[in-house]
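ok so i was messing around last nite and threw this chain in just to see what happens. nothing serious, just curious
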Amino acid sequence: MSGSRGMSGDRDTDRYRTLTRRMLVLGGLKVGLLSTLAGRLYYLQVLQSQKYTMLAEENRISLRLIAPSRGPIVDRFGVPLAVNQQNYRVVVTAERTKSMPETLDKIAQIVPLTDADRRRVMRELHRKRRFVPVTVRENLTWEQVATIEMNIPDLPGASIDVGEIRYYPFGEATAHILGYVGAVSESELNGDPVLSLPGFRIGKSGLEKHHEKSLRGTAGTSQLEVNAVGRVIRELSRDEGQPGREVQLTIDIGLQQFAQQRLSKEQSAACVVMDVHTGAIYALASHPSYDPNQFTMGISAELWEDLLSNPTTPLSNKAVAGQYPPGSTFKMVTALAALESGIVNKSFSVFCPGHYDFGDHRFHCWKKGGHGTVDMVGALRHSCDTFFYEVSRRIGIDRISEMGKRLGMGQPSGLDLPHERPGVMPSTEWKKATIGKSWAQGETLIASIGQGYVLATPLQLATMSCRLANGGHAVKPHLTKQIKGGPHETTVWPSIGVKKDHLDVIIRGMTEVVNAPNGTAFKARITEAGFEMAGKTGSAQVRRISMAERNTGVKKNEDLPWRERDHALFVAFAPVHAPRYAIGVIVEHGGGGSTAAAPIARDILLECQKRDPGRSAVADVTPGAPDGPRG
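result:
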């Protein structure tokens, strides 16, 4: 018995020892696990606390961009030309309505909705979360907003939102200068996150496009507290960012409206009014025009097709992109080139029998019976073609081309407006490089009177007039006076390198064109004392006149279809005694420059001078002072 108890005690002792070891092992494992857990918690909560706090905040806080307010555009006197207006829009939140089609039907009873509007809304609903509002219609009237607000209980999910929309107070009068804004296309995305904002718009043409960076401003930010699914709970902070900068132009909106209205009496026309000393553009008009406000919200396909198919091309800015044979307005270039060459002097004269024979070709003067003997001033006064045929034969095309370039022809001026075209100022080298053929002498005669290959824009014609009237300084046209907060520059224009006495001959000829009784533009002269202008008429053929027609009598423009009539041109400056303003006018298929273009230039130059506050007689008239330093 005692032996049995001894053996039993030993077994109990062994079991106890085994159990103790197991407990120690398990205890050690527990301690180890607890230590690891404590270490991990210490690592996460102490050592990595900043990192995970930031991650948690990022999950809770959403940072969103706020579109900046676009900078205004004003005229030289601060009159707003492009501004931002409140844009009331009706939006619908999908999660707050049981049936989106029913809600849209009810909204359509207040605000007209097209099938395209409905398709767009349904398309956006499938791309966005149900709690994100979708725009149904923008640019609502105050009456529409009030009606929707009154009927909100019957419009589940609908609400009114307020944003900004670009507005052009003077519409068609400034369309070709300002351009318009539109939605950002995929090709215009450049990594700037503000361009991806819903409804964000950028400059698509005109100065809106040219000054896009200055006008756009800097986006703001909004910190929003959101829940796990992204729903906004509250706004924590807000930074409005920086609005776009104000752009001030050289344009006088009163003169601009007057010019646009004056051109509207023609089927298609354009003009440019410049300061002869600074190059500031006071008016730049192209008719017909369009309403840029229609583009702001997205133009309809029907209206877009109408604009594109219009034969008078209302979308084209003819003042800077229309290239036309300058006709006889180019004769000052030929005359000045001849004087500067030394081959011809101011006393040189030519007998005009009504034609000029060169080789086996006969070149006709516009006056069938001829002008008799004329000198340079007389040739300009009468616009005698024969005189310039002879002069150009003596000096050659290259001298004419070089002078044309000095006066601003055949090259872009660098105007701060997109889509300016360079025109064409031909030379022997130009024809060889462009057409691959040698220059023919007969082409020189045609070019000398602004026909053939010669092409110019109304802007270039106005620039040429400036450089002739200001004593031969190479002013360049510009539309921007200054950008708020930017540098203010003063430009000193270089000389084009011509002699004053040669310019005096040209100025005298232009003065007699308008003010001499037998001048080609005498009937279109300014009769008010102190306001007189000097100028040059021009007509550019757009069809070939056959010899048979010449023998039987050239058809009058009024007897021809509109498309076959001559272009009418006129260039001028005023006042004659102290030149300050220059103008270039084109009336497409208008016939004669003396009857169609010259009266337009007269009316606009007279209005321009009367708007000058420097004249005490018109001190009570809305001002249109010279620009001063370029900015």
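not much to say yet. The domain at 253-299+315-618 is CATH 3.40.710.10 (Beta-lactamase).
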